[in-house]
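Technical appendix A lists one of the benchmark inputs used to test multi-chain prediction within the project. The record comprises three sequence entries:
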Amino acid sequence: MLNRIKSPLQVADVVRECGEALGREKSRFVICAGTGCVAGGSMDVFREFERLLKAKGLYGDVQLLFEGHTSPVGVIFSGCYGFCQVGPLVQFQPKGIIYTKVTVQDVDEIIKTTFEEDSVVERLLYRKHDGTLCPTEDEVPFYGKQKRVILAECGHINPEDIREYFATGGYQALASALSKMDPDGVIDIISRSGLRGRGGAGFPAGRKMALARESQGGRKYVICNGDEGDPGAFMDRSVLEANPHSVLEGMAIAAYAIGADKGYIYVRAEYPLAVTRIDIAIDQARRSGVLGKGIMGTDFDFDVEVFQGAGAFICGEATALIRSIEGFRGSPEMTLSYYPTERGLWGKPTLLNNVKTLAFIPKIIANGVRWFTGMGTKGSPGTAVFALTGEVRNNGLIEVPMGITLREIIFDIGEGVPGGREFKAVQIGGPSGGCLPRELLDIEVDFDSLLDAGAMMGSGGMVVVDDTTCMVDLARYFLAFTRMESCGKCVPCRIGTKRMLEMLTRICEGKGEPEDVGRLEELALDIKEGSLCALGGTAPNPVLTTLRYFKDEYEAHIHEKRCPAGLCANLVTFHIDSEKCNGCTVCARNCPADAITGEKKKPHVIDQDKCIKCRECLSRCRFDAVYTE
Amino acid sequence: MSEKIKLTIDGKKCAGRPGRTILEVARENDIWIPTLCFDERLEPYGACRICLVEVKGAGGLLPACAAEITPDMVVKTSSKRVDSIRRTVIELLLSDHPADCMTCESTGSCALQDLAYRYGIKESSFKGEAHSYHLADDNPVIERDPDKCILCGRCARICDEVVGPGVLGFVGRGFDATVSPPYDRLLEESPCLFCGQCVSTCPVGALTSKLSEGAGRPWELESTDTICPYCGVGCTLRLWTRDNKVVNVTAPMDKGVNRGNLCVKGRFGFQFIDSPDRLKHPLVRGKDGRLRKTTWNKAISLVAERLSETRDKHGADSVGGLASARCTNEENYLFQKFMRAVVGTNNVDHCARL
Amino acid sequence: MGKTDVELKTILEKFEATRSELIPILQAAQSSLGYLTNDTMREIARYLSIPESQVYGVASFFERFSFSRRGRREITVCCGTACYVKGARRLVDILESELGIRCGDTTPDLEYSLKQVACVGACALAPVVLVNEDVHRQMEPGKVKGLLAGE
């Protein structure tokens, strides 16, 4: 594939070589093969492109490019390009044309129209909800306000070919760190850049590195935390799947800075594709001499191993993660007088960073401190990656400068709430975060402003909810999650989350008592302050923020036994308006409980005893005949 | 010796060596901080959160059992915040704990009961699911009642950290976590040594001694400290007696070579004291084959006489001596001296070698 | 030695006998044997020279390990936030009633297992249901019967 790199200075040549070779391909189709698009069948689309291009005699093998041949068109698959909702995505580069929801049947037409006729297949273009067609990335609102830094290459390069990473300038940051900087120099740059940990808490990354560097104790470790367990978040997964080398390069630079020779990437069990891609990347990096013994011919050794999680949210917590690598239950440890930077994995100094934090490191080393601080806010420089999902038109993975407002994210990038519904709240930061209401749409998003609002950056899940979501039920959902994921070690979290969940369930079932609101709040505060680790310490946040911003919904459930969103099953019944129902039978045919009866073309009725309140009829009825009480 | 660190706890000036915890220094100064998961025989664990204290400038509350003292530290062991969390922790524990203190074996020596009393908590204000396990341990000494378990982990930790076999361990997670032998089976199906160290550390009634069941409340019993008769280690025992009968054996934490630790014999092997089979006087077998009571003087003279006879007739090596591990080192030394110097043989051995 | 014993022995041979291999060994055993029996865990404990209670303690801590045979088709309902707000709970209810089992259980004929997970990280396709490894996007209550029929 590539020859082993023997000195840091040689990297520039490799980068040029790869750039030139890939440049001999005049155009290429890029098929998104992130988890979302793969689920939509994108690998079949990819294979169809390969088959048809070969049949037309157009197919350019990458190897041939490296042998000096040119090719008019090629096809690769990439990692996640972000706009998962309208996947499978196909791009045509360098023109930047984006096709959405592509199926195998579309491929022939795409090749003909786009490549051979130099035109576009209109029906596959993204269409704004006002009807405007958006042929290229620049025109698609989803990408408009983004500032893609660590996602810059995601969706553009083949994550399973290191040469593509080199062609983007990859491993040059590591080369310049090894040849031009001493470890303190690296730490100095990261410190001055103001980079804060992207795992959620926002601890200054440079300071953490300095602590690990100062620690004595023989062997040191770097751990990449990819145990992204937050429900509603898939940023780390996408980075690992789409650009694994950026994470490896970041780890190597961090290892050089602190003096580590061994690293682990801890990946969630639910991310098999990420594991495959990292394994491939590690193998290629070793063979290229940018990982392993004597990196780039220097005396710096650093190797990486993948550790697959076994399914426990708590293992995203530093000490629990370390315990589980060591082969113990993933219960957090007290870190009172020392941090993992001092005593971590096997008691040795350990630098543990989130996937995204590590991916930022090569970018900062390559582009400099001023470039980085030029983005974002004073306290939180740089960009933030969010998984924008829920009841919003455009779902997907986005990267935006810190300081952007929630309104811009949800209404410009996300194009607002679909289906004529009203925006109600946005849940940020998963089970540790909070629900922010309409009134806070104009806050500028960064680590500190979110904390002030009672939420948290967390790992970056951003779930938009509309007026059909009950906020008490949403709080209950998160408590059900933390109750399930609590490790059970400390009392406040183990029993406290269970009791909070029971109180919330009673309220949702219409059995709440007037004292419950006060009781919930008191318990929440005690759990927050009394718990051993951050899981318990932040578990009450969804309750506290909904109590703060949506108290009226709690009160409606408790005092009026009414669910304003019409969601809580015990407090709502479904009916069919006989005036509006024309007997189209759609509801009856789709009712999973067979609770709807009626003759064709005559008004239907719902049998309340059979109804399981799944809302299917409500969402199916095209005549607005189904209503709730 | 390094300099002592000076600090203030509840307004009282205290001092302690570096590395000491807030709890240790507080106890030395007779300042009370409640604990549940703490046992001085074990590494601090920090799980129960009942020992949280306020430390000026620390940001959050710190567990006194694990937080080391620092110079000029200002500690408050009780405050509105701290007390609120303590009350919540107690109420949460009580909400998943049977309220059967009247018949509970641990009444009077239960840390949870003491805390509820101290904080005036009659019942938990939290309603909800409480665990109800059915257990059928039929070993003769250790009673397990998981319903009462507060998951402080002391039993599992003492089994692992102090004893070694690690029979008890946490199972599952969260609210449904339990402490159990492997595969949720019974103690008797595990490599348990039945040393009862787990019983000794359990702060509530989840692990109790079957031998002492119904024997009386702590305040009805008298205690006497003595040395274990079983082996040469010489552990300190605390015998609990009622009507002059030993009903329970524990070991004081602050005394002796064992500092609260005991083995199966020391802790559970006390019924011999009142056994009808126990030898209380020397017996000599008569010509008719029956044993008859005699005095120590007569018995020892008889042994000396017969030993001399055998030695003179068959030589010194026809005699052998086997000493007991229940004797002290000094006694064992004297015994081999007797065998070698008085009897004149090297035929001497010890049961601990068998 | 039974078939399982041989398989387990081959698995163990691939790993060093150190504590930190516990979770990787359990994962390998789970994936090739399907589930973990007491005997399997006892062998692993012996191999690593650690107490059985700790092997069981770790295995029971993590969701990926199961102690009973799973169905041929494992239905996984993602209950991540995005899926939840788009109706994942209702999918669970319907699947439970269609299959006649609770989440976490397996049908007596060993055809289906049903479970819910916190998040599979495919939030933009919400709500998502997995049949073994296959992701089914934008599921609706009305599609459940078809899903089980293998459509």
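Residues 573-628 of chain A form a domain with the Alpha-Beta Plaits fold (CATH 3.30.70.20). DSSP finds 26 helices and 19 strands in chain A. Comparable benchmark entries are summarised in Table A2.
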